[in-house]
From TrEMBL:
PANTHER family (UniProt xref): FAT-BODY PROTEIN 1-RELATED, LARVAL STORAGE PROTEIN/PHENOLOXIDASE
GO molecular function: nutrient reservoir activity
Occurrences of domain Hemocyanin middle (ranges): 110-374
Name of protein: Larval serum protein 1 alpha chain
Family matches, as Pfam families: Hemocyanin_C (PF03723), Hemocyanin_M (PF00372), Hemocyanin_N (PF03722)
Endpoints of the signal sequence: none
Organism: Cephus cinctus
Length: 629
């Protein structure tokens, strides 16, 4: 909220007088010029997907990011909070906090509290505003509005994809995607953020494949089957009717099922067809063309990273002129939004924000195309040989898993920030919450019995995959290897003889527990300041929500398989990396998704150090559970 102290800082900060407080003085000079020319005004809608907005945001990012110390960072941010476009500020600030050396590890309030319009239904936002208008602003009010999904429910027959809305609209999932996409922002190189060489592009492909598979699980659970395929000359099969609106009240664009691509998108279609065929040419010929027309072999160590970067078209791309950005173009097309005439106003689609793109089923159609590049690349590599898969002397004897249960819990999220307030006292008198059912699960343990002929380090990989397709046919691993989700990866020490590895789903490196609300966070800080006890919190600022560890089960049980694989590990990784989203990452010399990253022959894909275990996921009503969490 606006306090006089903050306003004081905002009014007195001068870039001209503090140029020496920034490492990147070019950025500061450019920013001063841009500012005098006129930046995107306050109140306008901002999206990184528009060139002018992008340029301004990136320029300001370099200013904030190059602040020499915390005080400068703080003053710059406060100045921007009062003087820049609100949405641009929020974006740049969130990303800068993630990366600036003086703010790394600082935990920001959950994004859904900061920008509720991007997370909560328009209906609820209106209810909240109406409520505020009708109440005496001099006394305290606290209220909870239940979500009303009647609109969504009524669409089940015409747009069956909405059956998975509890997943695609999940506030934790959408927040995760924002942080994942800004772990290395589009406009920064992996070198700048200190990410080890050669993983950015592979991580981009691997994580999107994981998200696609995770979404596919929800489809299976709801009887939906494969994600729609799409060709650029076709009408677009999947519709989308957003339930959220932009903060200025303008609705996000809609799309009816089987709509023709709008005429004003034809230039993008032309461009993306070219880009797509160039990428396939690179994959099939084995070479990416660099800016000097030299072929660069991509079937070599680091080759997949090169491929991933050209597909995303990020700052590490070898040749942005030739390969453009496939993902960017596809979002422009699938969004079905009106193209702006000038700098603003813009009419972005949900696909043009990282915080909302996962809501639209078109996102998964797009990701399927991206993942197809990845799979095509891997299909040109030889299948793993027996020697590459075996771990001599090591056998998984048995795997046992506790019951897997999912359910919906009601979650109350603070959306007070959606209210219009006149002053600080106004803001302090209203607390408005949205209550929504969220998918969650009962944490479970599993046990892996391993015999080993030697004392050795090992890496264990755990996957979850479908057992049947949507028609009830048993899936053979030959056709199903790509549908396995890697749910955990960890190292263990094995001793000669019998070993029992105990693990909880909560331990998974890929998930994080629920975020603390900013209210709770403040309470904890206050308590700690009063008592003098140290205040501790997670170093990792965001991640995939643990709640979504399992896909929604069914009443009679959804059959799935767990795949466990143990491999040799030297014990000293080639690199380790502290990722703000994935925690401590380490390299055991294997590609991401190993050993299911390459095509598998069902008839000989068997070694003693792998194990398939049938599991069943049940979905229960919260009342049926005897919860002791
Ligand atoms: C939900 O919204 C519909 C119409 O939009 C309305 O008829 C219904 O009463 C609402 N339900 C609740 C519980 O508010
Ligand atoms: C399975 O057979 C294929 C085709 O002959 C071969 O390339 C591959 O190495 C074999 N894999 C294993 C694990 O034996
Ligand atoms: C804050 O705004 C409210 C109207 O929403 C008004 O009633 C109140 O007097 C204002 N308080 C101050 C301190 O200006
Ligand atoms: C998968 O198919 C192969 C033949 O292609 C067969 O040898 C193998 O037993 C099948 N696996 C399962 C689990 O049914």
């Amino acid at each position: 909220a606006v306090t006089p102290e903050l306003e004081g800082v905002a009014n007195s900060w001068s870039f001209e007088h503090n140029k020496d407080k920034y490492n990147n003085q070019n950025a500061v000079n450019e920013f001063i010029q841009r500012y005098h020319e006129g930046l995107l005004p306050r109140g306008e809608i901002f999206s990184l997907m528009y060139q002018q907005h992008f340029d301004e945001a990136v320029n300001f990012f370099h200013v904030l990011y190059s602040a020499v110390d915390y005080t400068t960072f703080y003053n710059t941010a406060v100045w921007a909070r009062f003087n820049m476009n609100e949405m641009m500020f929020t974006y740049v600030f969130s990303v800068a906090v993630l990366h600036h050396p003086d703010t790394v590890g600082i935990s920001l309030p959950p994004l859904y509290e900061v920008i509720p319009h991007f997370f909560f239904d328009t209906q609820m936002i209106y209810q909240a505003m109406q409520y505020k208008m009708s109440k005496d602003p001099t006394i305290h009010h606290s209220v909870v509005f239940p979500a009303n999904h009647s609109q969504i429910t009524s669409m089940h027959t015409t747009e069956p994809q909405v059956k998975t809305h509890y997943f695609t609209d999940d506030i934790g999932l959408n927040e995760f995607y924002f942080y994942f996409m800004n772990e290395v922002p589009y406009f920064m190189t992996s070198h700048e953020v200190g990410m080890p060489k050669g993983i950015r592009g592979e991580l981009f492909l691997f994580v999107h494949k994981q998200l696609l598979v995770r979404y596919y699980f929800e489809r299976l659970s709801n009887g939906l089957g494969e994600i729609e395929k799409f060709d650029w000359s076709q009408d677009f099969p999947v519709g989308y009717h957003p339930t959220i609106s932009l903060p200025n009240g303008v609705p996000f664009p809609e799309r009816e099922p089987w709509s023709p691509i709008p005429v004003e998108k034809y230039d993008y279609v032309q461009e993306i067809e070219d880009v797509e065929s160039r990428i396939y040419e690179a994959i099939n010929s084995g070479h990416v063309i660099d800016p000097n027309y030299k072929p660069v072999n991509i079937y070599s160590p680091g080759g997949l990273d090169i491929l991933g970067n050209i597909i995303q078209g990020n700052a590490d791309s070898y040749n942005p002129h030739l390969y453009g950005s496939f993902v960017h173009l596809a979002k422009k097309i699938f969004g079905f939004n009106v193209e702006p005439f000038g700098k603003y106003p813009i009419y972005p689609s949900v696909l043009e924000y990282f915080t909302t793109s996962m809501r639209d089923p078109a996102f998964y159609v797009l990701m399927k195309k991206v993942v197809n590049f990845y799979m095509q690349y891997k299909s040109h590599m030889p299948a793993y040989t027996h020697n590459e898969l075996i771990f001599d002397g090591v056998t998984i004897e048995h795997v046992s898993v506790d019951q897997m249960i999912t359910y919906f819990e009601n979650f109350e999220a603070d959306m007070s920030n959606a209210l219009w307030v006149n002053n600080l006292s106004d803001a302090e008198h209203f607390s408005v919450k949205a209550s929504e059912p969220r998918l969650t699960y009962k944490p479970f343990n599993y046990q892996i019995k391993i015999t080993s002929g030697k004392n050795t380090n090992a890496v264990v990989r755990i996957f979850l995959g479908p057992k049947y397709d949507v028609h009830g046919h048993v899936l053979n691993i030959t056709d199903n290897y790509m549908n396995f989700l890697e749910v955990d990866l960890f190292d263990v020490k094995l001793k000669v003889g019998n070993n029992v590895v105990e693990r909880s789903s909560k331990d998974s490196v890929y998930v994080v527990p629920d975020e603390t609300s900013s209210h709770m966070y403040m309470e904890k800080i206050k308590k700690s300041m009063k008592s003098g006890e140290p205040f501790t919190y997670e170093k990792r600022s965001s991640g995939f929500p643990e709640r979504l560890f399992l896909p929604k089960g069914t009443k009679s049980g959804m059959p799935m398989q767990m795949f466990v694989y143990v491999s040799q590990y030297e014990g000293t990784p080639a690199w380790t990396y502290e990722s703000p989203v994935w925690g401590t990452m380490f390299d055991d010399g294997k590609p991401m998704g190993f050993p299911l990253d390459r095509p598998v022959y069902g008839f000989n894909f068997t070694v003693p150090n792998m194990y398939f275990k049938d599991v069943t996921i049940y979905h229960k009503e919260i009342e049926e559970l005897n919860l002791t969490i």
